[in-house]
Amino acid sequence: ETGTLSETTPGPDNLQSMPLAPSATDIITVSPGLYRYEETDPGIVYGGTWSNVNGANYSSGSGLRTEGIGNTATFSFTGQWLEIGLGETTDAGKVEVTLDGVSQGVYDLYGRGETRALIFPSLSSGPHAVTLTVVAQDNPFSNRNWVVLDYLTIWDGTALPDGTFEHDSGRVLTSNNWRTFNNVNASAGTYGDSANKAWFYFMGDAVTIRAITTSDEMRVLVDGQFITKFDLHQTTNPTSTLSLEGFGPGLHVLELDEYRGVSVLDTFTTPGIPPFYQSPPAGSYTRYEEDDPAWRYNGFPYNTTAPSWSFSEHSVASNHYAAWSDTLSDTISLTFTGTAIFLGFYTDDWGGLAQVSIDGIVQETLDTYSNEPNLLTRRYANLTPGPHTVTVTVLDARNPFALRDRVRLDFIDVWDGTPLPDGTVEAEDRERVYNSDNWSLANDTGASGGTYVERGSTLWYPFTGDSVSLTLPNNTAGREMRLFVDDQFIDFLNVYSATFLTETIALNGLGSGVHLLRLEAYRDRALADTFATPGTAPFWQPPDKSGYFRYEEDDPDLRYNGAPLPQAPTSWSRGDGVFALAGSDGQLVSTNAGSDSVSLTFSGEWVSLGFLGGSSDGQIEVWLDGVSQGVHDLYRRFEDPVTIQFGNLGSGTHTVTAVNLGTRHPNSSGTHMRVDYVDVWDGTPLPAGTVEAEDASRAYYSGNLGTVNQPDASGGAYVSDGLFSNASLWFPFTGDSITLQAWASSSLDEMRIRIDGVEQPPLDLFSTAAQTRTISFAGLGAGVHVLELTRYRSDMTADAFILPAIPANFVYPPPPQTGIVRYEEDNPALRYNGYAYSQTVSSWTYDSSFNISGDYSARTSATGNNVTLDFNGSWFGVGFESNSLTG
User: Fold this and answer.
1) Of 388, 537, 848, 881, which is least packed with CB atoms within 10 Å of its CB?
2) Domains assigned to the chain
3) What integer is the mean pLDDT of 410-419?
């Protein structure tokens, strides 16, 4: 039967031996005597129905495929060496290869490599005929029976010249869509890249590949056999080279396979240039990534296992990838020799349950659910010396909060019991420090060796012994990181500094044996300088939560729907950055789901709940030790902190809970509850005296606050807000009185003041001469109080707090008016549509102008909006702003 290919399908009379000199556009001359024949070459005779299939990884971008049992492709040629390029996919079938009438075997093309090259070297000189025959696929993993022919390459024995060959040389064949880029570090000033494949034919025992450094990986195959991955991620060199040897005499074909990212190519050189790559031996501590050939998926290497297993990319994962399945009873296993292992999982809201077994004995069931993308590491130590097998099994079960039952395994670390070397290790040392493959190298003379790593997601540092130190750069790009050892959370690490400096954190009491330190980016990217063992004093101590302590919204002691935030349902979300600047520490946790709750069990006699109110916030009910404390409305016309305090609780343990009711104020557009913090006081008096506003051990700050150096300020500096609105500062104190010292100048306006959540008159910060301004509060009563300062009309400053109060240099509050009384637009007595301005409809807003009383007016364009004032008097007047837009 003559196959269906096109109107010019070659017939049986095309079976003559093809000439070596190319005579058609479907033949590519690689070198004299070496030719590639594309699948559409007229010399290839097809039996049965074959159809075109496009594929970015195919030579010339396409192949011909069939799944008919018995269908054939036949090619006659003269040469000593044959390469057959085939497709390799999860819906592939099997093909029998016959040379000169003799079967060369049946090849199962099922796999994930996208292409498969079969090499038949050392053929006798003279004519040959090769036939591909589709046979029945009995691999249970395959979805179909497709056989794809991509190309045939023939060599007649003519020697290929040695030398260095550029990426665009005729000796280099590529699939489609390769691009050329200029780069001063590239040979001849240019290099090529593509998300596809390249082939290089060479003679002899060795070859060298040179590439431009990127964050990607390529697979390198020679004569159809996988050799190694070529990792192009470097933090130091602009180019990377890989030299390979041991292939023996004769012709060879090297294939570069885009693997993770793009293929990048500068040059090939033959013969290869030392030093030559050697497969690294397993050390005393070895990380097996998800694509390591030693892993078994359902008992098979990844390339030939069930299609239910896949790889997925995650910025926080080791080497950026993890293996996943959500199919019941799918397994990952590794046979190893060692006394301890670590399993690293990637977790998120799709995470399901996984069972871990060692040597057939179940160790535990793990929950891989998390509220947001996260990591989970499990340590299994004290194994007997010798071989073991660890198995992770996907279960058909999940956390009730989870959306799927997917299990994603990131890495398996093995330790053989040999102590790891002590000393200092640079964070960029990829032999000792594992990373998420998205780190950059930065220079600063203040760093160890003049360099440090930055802008990455995760670092892992394995070590042995009871203690460890890590040195972190602090700079203007630093934010907050998280530190774990053996997956136990240690602390949040704030690495912001106005000038570059380094700080060292040392941990001890970890116990003997092997440990795994993990440093994570938490709010923005992370940075690191060095790690060292043993650690040196002073050693880190857990936060002291006695006295007065603020539990920020992400504190591990808080419970969201009964779970720590990382395990809370996805109705809760964490926000920071520009949309959470008004929150303490510049971060909030929010929900709009009715019945969602946040709670804290604590020891103390006073508690204060901090929320952020706004135009889409709803109503909550607060409970204390199981007793309702009433409903509280979080709706505010503009974003504003909301404080709810309870005192005189008595000593002992208490539980405070806030429940989102899912109801709202008539003017609110939503039912959000935005949790900011919970403050607790145990009755211990706080120190008196003068406290600088920039003293972070006593004051708490929202985002958008900074320090301004000013010689005339107390301590030479004061705290001020930044470009964005709604900055706040909280200062807790004990005693009956306090003096606030603020900075005043001609460029400043008003700020708001609250004490224990109760609004005080605004403080005017305008002064023709820049100076400190003090105001005092007395008669507050014994116990704890919180002074809260909030930006109001474009400004907020704080210089110092003085306890107890001293005589003030500024009259505050302003004396009451008599006779003619002016109620400015923001007076609490005014009602806008029947509500105080802070809770009126959003169609009212404040405008500023230098031509009106107090520089501000309340504006609306909505028909029916109204403003009212109840007053006692015999006369009134109303002032309006008039301009071209008023009605």
Assistant:
1) 537
2) 12-155 (2.60.120.260), 163-270 (2.60.120.260), 285-415 (2.60.120.260), 423-533 (2.60.120.260), 548-681 (2.60.120.260), 689-803 (2.60.120.260), 820-887 (no CATH)
3) 98
